[in-house]
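Let us work through a complete example step by step.
Step 1: write down the sequence.
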Amino acid sequence: MLFGLKHVVGLDYVEVGRELIPAEPCLIVCNHQSTWETLAFLVLFPDVAIVAKQELLRIPIIGWYLRKSPMIIIDRESGSKALKSMLKESREALASGRSVLIFPEGSRMKELEPIKFKRGVELLYAKLGTPVLPVLVNSGKFWGLGGSCKRGGTITVSYLAPIPAGMPAESFVRKTESLMEAERSRLS
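Step 2: predict the structure and record it as tokens.
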């Protein structure tokens, strides 16, 4: 898919800070601006467990792939049951040596919309006890929400310094949102 986007559409990517990726499995948090990062992370982190919403299972081809892959599928409508399931499956993924990727905003956001985490990432940080790798993408510039914003260019995938486990969860959220927001402004 990424090969086709590069050679047909002219949509490529560059990675900045890849050396910051922890050697051990971690929790990866990435802003969510397009479908591109969902596909790209399967290449950037081949054995990642992506937290995905159950509604995606209804999409032809993508839904079939998600059913066959070891993703963490949650039903956001089930409230605390979804959080418990996400935590359990995230622990299992980390124990098996796989990093866990979550898009903490919960849905794709417009390119310049402020980064604001949903509650699930705070819970994962507090309960998993693992470092967090913040990642910022500017894919919305090229393949954002809506039909008119699909064009060629070079997406930047920016890996930020890992955040160690053990901070108060609320402080972690504020710090990570702030770091990612600063990087988003830098890439704009």
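Step 3: interpret the result. The beta strands are 11-16, 27-30, 49-53, 72-74, 100-102, 132-137, 153-159.
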